[in-house]
UniProtKB/TrEMBL annotation:
Pfam families: Glyco_hydro_67C, Glyco_hydro_67M, Glyco_hydro_67N. It comes from the Archaea. It comes from Haladaptatus pallidirubidus. Residues 141-467 form the Glycosyl hydrolase family 67 catalytic domain. Transmembrane segments: none annotated. Keywords: Carbohydrate metabolism, Glycosidase, Hydrolase, Polysaccharide degradation, Xylan degradation. This is Alpha-glucuronidase family glycosyl hydrolase. GO terms for molecular function: alpha-glucuronidase activity; xylan alpha-1,2-glucuronosidase activity. Residues 468-690 form the Glycosyl hydrolase family 67 C-terminal domain. GO terms for cellular component: extracellular region.
Length: 702
């Protein structure tokens, strides 16, 4: 199987866009060796380029492109709108196409003047891009072209990836795959890699990209911001850098992807020759309006701003005795004439001892006050992308506000792309969560279907040849895009698609890789937390050089609440009241340890070490068992992967095998550190007599 894509200066992986020949290639050649495709827009250039790449692999030959329907061919592929191409209007009614969403598409097989043809059509050029990638995926999976009648539209209008790239040093915060893909200093010169990244995103339906870090002002080790301001990217609003971005925006535009920027709320002060950034000051209103006009001149389809304000050292409206509505709306008014949007992050916790409580308390009272082109971007859980958290209570309880779901594609707390950890099952758990079982609310996945809502994923691809640092981590980017387009997809379907496109159609490989992917997340939960809702057991490190990789539970007593008498955090009615932020039915269930789900038990309750669970085991024994089970599972996953020796190309097999070797060592290290920590705090021995290594208590990662 073709493994890499040639480029000047090296090779890089094709991920799921390998386009390998399969058992149905002969029938594909009969229908698709000839292509009649529109050339009326830049997006159609992307369509033609992708068909060349795809059919070169799937058909074993370049397709023959025609400017007119070929009369000599027994079959052909037609790509275009009914208005542009008569053959399309002959096969598909204009009404059917006009009724499609702007990004929807229709694919149909038909008999046209004796020729068997495949038609890809849409109401917009972006829809044709998505339809083309759908057809190529369909063929990559070896599915037949006979009797196709496919209509697809995105469930969510906004499907964005957030890059945390620091433009002027090419580093990536929470990135585990080398330097930034983007070389801002060389823009507007464009790298071939930008094209292939746009292809990867468009193939799974992404339509927006934020190219720089939300931390536009990066605190230095002393907590000040002076030494490192130049690293975070707030200068991208300067005219000289906006001009550099025009080519990049045009490239992504060809693939239906709009460019966004993270902006520093204090920009009018930083380089605007003003003495304030007060959102209630008329001068600031005028400054942002003028800046939005300037951006629109450079990038006509500019998506808008992503803002992290009043959190972790970032300036915000609190600096000026204003609130988040004032801050977001002044930017929204500036962008409104250009159909731009403000994505205002709700990750605000500086002023409260438990960040779980603050987000709801801060934003729920502001429901209904945000401008229509503001989307409040809320992380899936109330803490910070932990291996498992409860769903944020903000979802379902701000009905008058456009909300966006923020997920972490990169693996900050799930092994940092050294460990295999498949996030799609985690995200499905979030998306299927009922925000109010008594009927007032909706499932999380149903909250982002209206205009102005959407899903954003914190993505961390880098310049390493495999894009994500771990070949298996590519599945998280793929799965995110597929779920953002259609959150009703089940994880089995997504996994099967990704495995087959990435590793081929060998049944043994498909079964083994699929099992590894589905079993990886539970294993990581067990050996990095002990389960039962614990979190934040990792080493923090120094200021902005945070590690978050090694075990160090001693650092986080405020999160796990471990004492001699028990463990867990009372986020219930007798504690800090966090459970009461949920609707009544959920609050009641979470508030009682007898009805609280086991997987969240210690998140909501501080319980005695020997508190007995439903299965008869105590809390501490369950923690011991989970830590050992997680480490054992990591070893089993490694053995499963090693069973594929000779069935996977050597480069990927060896790389993943070596990552699994490291994961096993780290899982054992986590297990021994946590078990020792639980024993030191509880003085309760493991009933099964398992003893951690003698030096485990010294392995805190410090």
């Amino acid at each position: 199987m073709r493994n890499v894509h040639e480029m000047s200066g090296g090779k890089y992986d094709d991920c799921w866009l390998r386009y390998a020949e399969n058992g149905t290639s002969k029938s594909y050649r009969e229908r698709c060796s000839n292509v009649y495709a529109s050339v009326e827009a830049p997006e159609l250039g992307a369509v033609r380029d992708e068909l060349r790449r795809g059919f070169r692999g799937l058909l074993g030959r370049e397709p023959h492109f025609w400017q007119h329907p070929p009369r000599s061919a027994d079959g052909f592929l037609a790509v275009g709108t009914p208005a542009e191409m008569e053959v399309v209007s002959d096969c598909v009614s204009s009404e059917a196409v006009e009724s499609l969403d702007d990004e929807g598409f229709l694919i149909r097989t038909a008999d046209w003047e004796g020729a068997e043809i495949v038609v890809v059509t849409a109401s917009t050029d972006r829809g044709l891009v998505y339809g083309t990638f759908y057809l190529l995926r369909h063929m990559s999976l070896g599915r037949p072209l006979d009797s196709l009648d496919v209509v697809r539209e995105p469930t969510n209008a906004e499907r964005i990836v957030n890059h945390w790239d620091n433009p002027f040093r090419r580093s990536v915060e929470r990135g585990y795959a080398g330097p930034s893909i983007f070389d801002f200093e060389r823009l507007p010169d464009l790298r071939e890699r930008y094209v292939d990244y746009a292809r990867l995103l468009a193939s799974v339906g992404i339509n927006g990209i934020v190219v720089n870090n939300v931390n536009t002002q990066i605190p230095n080790r002393d907590g000040a911001n002076e030494a490192t301001n130049e690293l975070g990217g707030w200068q991208l609003l300067e005219t000289r850098y906006l001009e550099k971005l025009t080519g990049l925006a045009a490239l992504f535009r060809r693939y239906g992807i709009r460019l966004y920027l993270s902006v520093n709320f204090g920009a009018p002060e930083k380089f605007g020759d003003l003495d304030t950034a007060d959102p209630c000051d008329d001068r600031i209103e005028q400054w942002w309006a003028a800046k939005a006009d300037e951006i629109h001149e450079c990038i006509p389809d500019f998506g808008g701003f992503l803002v992290k304000a009043d959190s972790e050292g970032q300036p915000g409206p609190y600096n000026y005795d204003a609130d988040h509505v004032n801050g977001a709306n002044v930017l929204a008014r500036a962008l409104e004439p250009h159909s731009g949007r403000v994505w205002w992050r709700a990750f605000v916790y500086d002023s409260h001892e438990d960040r779980a409580v603050q987000q709801y308390n801060t934003f729920e009272p502001l429901d209904g006050e945000f401008h229509e082109n503001v989307t409040v971007q809320v992380k899936n859980g109330p803490i910070d992308f932990q291996p498992r958290e409860p769903v944020s209570p903000v979802f379902g309880q701000m009905p008058e506000t456009n909300l966006g779901l923020e997920l972490q594609i990169t693996g900050e707390y799930t092994g940092q792309h050294v460990h295999a950890c498949y996030h799609v099952p985690m995200w499905k758990e979030v998306l299927e969560f009922d925000t109010d079982p008594e009927g007032r609310g909706r499932r999380v996945k149903n909250l982002f279907t209206e205009e102005g809502t959407g899903i954003a994923g914190v993505s961390g691809p880098g310049d390493d040849p495999n894009w994500t640092g771990h070949y298996l981590a590519q599945a998280n980017l793929y799965g995110y895009g597929r779920l953002a387009w259609n959150p009703d997809l089940d994880d089995e379907t997504i996994t099967d698609e990704w495995v087959r496109q990435t590793f081929g159609d060998d049944p043994a490989v498909i079964e083994t890789v699929t099992d590894i992917m589905h079993d990886s997340w539970p294993a990581v939960i067990d050996y990095t937390t002990g389960g039962l809702g614990l979190l934040h057991m990792m080493y923090n490190g120094e200021a902005r050089l945070e590690n978050h990789y090694d075990p160090s539970p001693e650092e986080w007593p405020g999160y796990h609440g471990a004492t001699e008498d028990g463990i867990g955090k009372d986020r219930n009615s007798k504690g800090n009241g966090y459970t009461q932020q949920y609707p009544a039915a959920l609050a009641a269930g979470y508030d009682d340890p007898e009805t609280c789900p086991n997987e969240l038990l210690l998140f909501f309750h501080h319980l005695p070490w020997e508190y007995e669970l439903e299965d008869g085991r105590t809390v501490v024994q369950t923690l011991y068992d989970n830590c050992f089970a997680g480490a054992a599972e990591a070893e089993r996953l490694r053995d499963e992967w090693n069973s594929l020796d000779g069935k996977i190309d050597d480069e990927r097999f060896r790389h993943i095998a070596e990552r699994f070797d490291e994961q096993v060592v780290q899982a054992e290290r986590w297990r021994d550190t946590l078990v020792a920590f639980f024993y030191e705090r509880s003085s309760v021995p493991d009933q099964r007599g398992r003893v951690p290594s003698a030096d485990a208590s010294d392995e805190s990662g410090a």
